């Protein structure tokens, strides 16, 4: 995609996807309240513009790695919401057959290499994927999503250094939502902008307003073009804020209500609504209609997933090993025993 001003159709498409992500997360919270989810749920509320604006530039042949807060990345990349809900509710039709839960959704067919419950765990995976793409001489790229807390992990420094040395096609996207669980970024980092760390690796660093869909889309588009042309990697920092707690049930006693209210005024969906009304002349009734349609899609996926079966006890040991490798290893073991 080029860097022209977003068209009316693109803005509407982005709005629908952002509303879809918000509706998915709200439904996930409702499922958690009913004790239907089988693991902790971390929602993406307030960060939707980042995933949508970035994934709009990616094809199924481009890879992403995600985090424990990965539902928005999955949906923006094109994942099946019914399979996602099935995974959250531990159904056998889920992406990981009900065994992975909210934090471990993956879909190789669309280039989604997996969410990750380990903070910073997806960063070295992205570097490995980037090495594979460079080895294959493709124009495809890897986008590595991680939070501000992961920016203080050893994997962050080691991985970016390796990607810089090998000039790998990876764009490291730090979703700086201001808190690593309950620790403010201001208390854990010596720099105001995490993208300033890029200079230490000799690569480009960019800080963007992550709540502005147009800024995200256009800045990432420029970065993606550079990386596809062999000029990567790049470190991008998207300044944003998670409107909900770290997880469903978080008492949020580490931040004030005033701070949350201030950031809610900068909600990325609200910001895009203002653009649609002022620039595209879309009415409030039309916005509500689109919201309702997206909410109905999400609820339909949730209700359908509820009807699916849970894995049986017989499935417990399935998918633990690659069957071909396990079969060969067992034969080798038997021969050695003889």
From TrEMBL:
Q: Name one GO biological process term.
A: pyruvate decarboxylation to acetyl-CoA
Residue numbers spanned by region Disordered: 299-318
Q: What's a Gene Ontology MF term here? A: pyruvate dehydrogenase (acetyl-transferring) activity
Keywords, A to Z, come to:
Oxidoreductase, Thiamine pyrophosphate
Q: Which InterPro entries match?
A: DH_E1, PDH_E1_Alpha_Subunit, THDP-binding
Instruction: Please give the start and end residues of each transmembrane region.
Output: none
The prosthetic group or cofactor this protein requires is: thiamine diphosphate
Coiled-coil ranges per UniProt: none
Q: Which SUPFAM superfamilies match?
A: Thiamin diphosphate-binding fold (THDP-binding) (SSF52518)
Q: Where is the Dehydrogenase E1 component domain?
A: 16-313
Q: Can you say what this protein is called?
A: Thiamine pyrophosphate-dependent dehydrogenase E1 component subunit alpha
- What species is given as this protein's source? Candidatus Anaerostipes excrementavium
Lineage runs: Bacteria, Bacillati, Bacillota, Clostridia, Lachnospirales
């Amino acid at each position: 995609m080029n860097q022209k001003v977003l068209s009316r159709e693109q803005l509407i498409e982005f709005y629908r996807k952002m509303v879809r992500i918000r509706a998915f997360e709200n439904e996930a919270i409702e499922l958690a309240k009913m004790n239907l989810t089988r693991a902790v749920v971390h929602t993406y509320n307030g960060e939707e513009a980042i995933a949508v604006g970035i994934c709009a530039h990616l094809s199924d042949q481009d890879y992403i790695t995600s985090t424990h807060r990965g539902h928005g990345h999955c949906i923006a990349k094109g994942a099946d919401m019914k399979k996602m809900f099935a995974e959250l509710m531990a159904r056998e039709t889920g992406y990981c057959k009900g065994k992975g839960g909210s934090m471990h959704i993956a879909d190789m067919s669309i280039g989604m290499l997996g969410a990750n419950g380990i903070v910073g765990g997806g960063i070295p995976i992205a570097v490995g994927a980037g090495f594979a793409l460079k080895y294959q001489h493709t124009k495809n790229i890897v986008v590595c999503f991680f939070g501000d807390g992961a920016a203080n992990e050893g994997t962050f420094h080691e991985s970016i250094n390796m990607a810089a040395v090998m000039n790998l096609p990876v764009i490291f996207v730090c979703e700086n939502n201001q808190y690593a669980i309950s620790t403010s970024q201001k208390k854990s980092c010596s720099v105001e902008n995490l993208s300033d760390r890029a200079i230490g690796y000799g690569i480009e660093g960019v800080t963007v307003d992550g709540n502005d869909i147009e800024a995200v889309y256009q800045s990432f588009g420029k970065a993606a073009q550079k990386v596809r042309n062999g000029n990567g990697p790049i470190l991008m920092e998207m300044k944003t804020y998670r409107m909900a707690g770290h997880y469903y049930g978080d008492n949020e006693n580490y931040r004030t209500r005033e701070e949350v209210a201030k950031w809610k005024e900068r909600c990325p969906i609200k910001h895009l609504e203002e653009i649609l009304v002022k620039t595209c002349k879309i009415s409030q009734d039309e916005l509500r209609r689109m919201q309702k349609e997206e909410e109905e899609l999400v609820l339909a996926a949730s209700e359908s997933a509820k009807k699916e079966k849970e894995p049986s006890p017989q499935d417990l040991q399935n998918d633990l090993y690659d069957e071909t490798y396990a079969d060969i290893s067992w034969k080798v073991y038997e021969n050695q025993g003889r």
